[in-house]
Amino acid sequence: MAQLSYHDVFWFVPNLIGYSRVVLAAMAVFGMYYEHPCLTFVSYALSELLDVADGYYARKLNQCSKFGEVLDMVTDRCTTTVLLTYLAQLYDSRVLALIFCLIISLDISSHYMQMYSQLITGKTNHKQMDQNAHWILKAYYTDRKVLFAFCFGNEAFFLLLYLNKYLPYYALYLSVPLTLAAFPISLIKNAINVVQLYESASDLARLDAAEINKTKK
Questions:
Q1: Known catalytic residue at 76
Q2: Is pTM, for the whole model, over 0.85?
């Protein structure tokens, strides 16, 4: 069997799906700032749905890669950050802007810390949990249905907040209840991010303490 080159990894099916997510995210951003809410909604929603497809095909085709994992995470963080930044402008509220900024900071820091701590301790990816992992994180990362439900609900909440600003009043009778239904899911998802940040920071601190103690012997 011929040896793979790094160029081959770029052409893995899940990574091709990842590139399409980047294009869709760019289309969503264009739609936001040029006042095309339908384009934004469809592009953003498709990008998030394809987030499920890339993982499925990575496992099915045995094409899991560190590049693909990082591409997936960076795309997730960037799309959420852009949407929340736009929501802060759209709602024109200092309180909401502060909340959105805190959510962005928590989202980026918790996922970066989690990925770094997992990789430095020998894990293959940031979703790999051992027996010492916090039970909330194990429940969140080991069951794909749970992971999908919270990620989907979280993104749906923010996307509905965006859409509610453009819908005619009669459509709000449907969209507002959906937004309220998605709110507790988003709240729990961000609480999980808090746990993730604390646990990964603790793991790194334990490694630091162990290494410092070794040098003292």
A1: yes
A2: yes
